Amino acid sequence: MEITMKAYGEAVQLLLNAANTGTSGGRASAQVLLCAYNGEEWQLDVTDLGILDHRHYDAAITVIRGRKELWHEPQEVVENGGRRFDEILKRWGHLRVSERGKRTCFNCYGSGKVPVALNKDNCDEMVTCQRCDGKGRYWQE
Q1: Are 3 and 63 in contact (CB under 8 A)?
Q2: 94-108 residue pLDDT tens
Q3: pTM here?
């Protein structure tokens, strides 16, 4: 069956909505979209497609087919696509190929910041986490 631009846009929209959640389905949806956006920097863990329900899986396949068969990047087929993709780029930055082997820092919980006094309650003053050098992720030793 042929993929239409309308079906491609609807599939991108559905996956964008999911990718804006912090769920495992959101992660899988983000991987599909980001890989279709820039496959060198973002790659899809194909086994994560198994996380998706039937509707989102079909949308993922439609996005993959739409990218190949219609020759349009996914951010081009939805309203405000550039801005919306920027949002998922920020949310899912740790899925970049260059970040895949890193672990979330357990000192700062991935924020890159820790309270000045770790044992002080309600400390509002934050400093750069020394374990991850403020990046929120580190290579496991």
Answers
A1: no
A2: 889 988 888 888 888
A3: 0.78
